[in-house]
Write a structure and sequence with these properties.
There is one protein chain. This protein is an alpha/beta fold. The chain has a single domain, classed as Alpha-Beta Barrel (TIM Barrel), CATH 3.20.20.70. The protein is built from 11 helices and 12 strands. β4, α3 and β5 form a beta-alpha-beta unit. α9 runs antiparallel to α10. The mean pLDDT is 93.
Length: 302
Amino acid sequence: MRKLVRETQLSPDDFVMPYFVRPGKGVRQPIASMPGQFQFSVDELVKEARGLAKTGVGSLILFGIPASKDAKGSGGWAKNGIVQQAVRALKDALPELVVITDVCMCEYTDHGHCGILKGREVDNDATLPILQKIAVSHAEAGADVVAPSGMMDGVVAALRSALPKATILSYAAKYASAFYGPFRQAAESAPSFGDRQAYQMDVANADEAVREIDLDLREGADIIMVKPALAYLDIIRRAKEKFGCPMAAYNVSGEYAMIKAAGERGWIDEKKVILEVLTSIKRAGSDFILTYFARGAAQWIT
């Protein structure tokens, strides 16, 4: 009877699996703060993606870890950059797979910030042409969706100008959250000084999120995202009710790590908690969820 009247249903189609890709061959390097997650070389990533596809999950998002970094993040738009290599390999091996790429500079800069620095501050306008170059290089490699995550003002308009026909997934409401810690270890992207509060959102603000989402939709975003998910379910719901547009939410690394840590200690029923969390995110209004639980959850629900 519960199944007959259940309002919110999870499906493998609801999930996008994040992956971290790095140079090398045969690399499957564990991420200490995210048990069960790895940095993959391109060849190992293709193997992993084949397994993912067998569970019914048809989408992933890529984060790159380059061989070297510099102040301008030039590895981000290199024709043979690590993400570009991965996109080409994935599309050759699994052409039906939806490949999303993260468009940001923090993984590629030696200072770890999401843009070009002017002194010790990020220069928003100087960063936009670089993000255009990164997005174009991803699209030329075969990416299906580009996802600007740096929270630079005007980035969606810049990407829409450079890629008129691209699908843009905007991190429209990305908060300056303490839940990102494990990700920064995984992506090797922690800032070398300061923090990112100058360009990510204040965790206390909801009206601001609505304004940010509205601006990105006006600039040409196809899909908007709220990040993190669990502490911001109210933002997901509010945005869905106001805009009715395609919506994503990112079930981020800190949310993943907390559940894994409690599960390993036997303090919670890990499987039940994961499915409850993912159901709550979808129930709040997210059409799909970026989550490190994607592969396991897909197997459980099918």
